[in-house]
Amino acid sequence: MNVCCGGIVGMGETPKDRAELLHILATLPEHPQSVPINQLVQVAGTPLAGTAPLDPFDFVRSVAVARILMPRAHVRLSAGRSEMSDELQALCFMAGANSVFYGEKLLTTGNPDTAHDLRLFERLGIRPEPPRSAAQSAEIAAKSGSAAHSASTPAAALAITPATSASASARTASASPATA
Asked: Looking at beta carbons, which pairs linking 91-97 to residues 24 or more positions away fall under 8 Å?
């Protein structure tokens, strides 16, 4: 079974709160395979509307710490990407994010359209990972001692790998469950 567990940041929490969230996930008996890092999207009329926005560098730090603590997880940029600049998303990928959630209907708020994401990936020299076959998933499960892994990357998640840099490819390969 694949576990997906992360958090929403920018809700008025402290840096210590974010560190505790990631510490809890990293000290589970097995790390979640998917760790979405969501940026709060403020919606008018909700209790958190008007909350001071999270400093973008604090968001990037959260991604970087998640990558360091959970090296085999898919650290996913999730909610809030539609409000992030391409530059902020690029920093997140450089800090260790290696997956995004995409598509309009999965989240409660908007997402960048797929064509925009693919243009950004091309600019950054990263490409989607191919979906895993059932045989590859079984091999990964056997190597990791895990009971089961999903047969493919979920339709609403897009894992990415660098297309150009050998050192970045090695870093991503060691971080990706698909290559464990």
From this structure: 91/56, 91/60, 92/37, 92/59, 92/60, 92/63, 93/124, 93/126, 93/160, 95/60, 95/61, 95/63, 95/64, 95/67, 96/63, 96/64, 96/66, 96/67, 96/68, 96/175, 97/37, 97/63, 97/67
Domains present along the chain, CATH in parentheses: 7-179 (3.20.20.70)
pLDDT per position as a tens digit, 53-102: 999 999 999 999 999 999 988 898 888 888 889 899 999 999 999 888 76
| Strands laid side by side in the 34-39 sheet | 7-9, 34-39, 74-77, 99-101, 157-162, 126-128
Look up the pTM and report it: 0.71
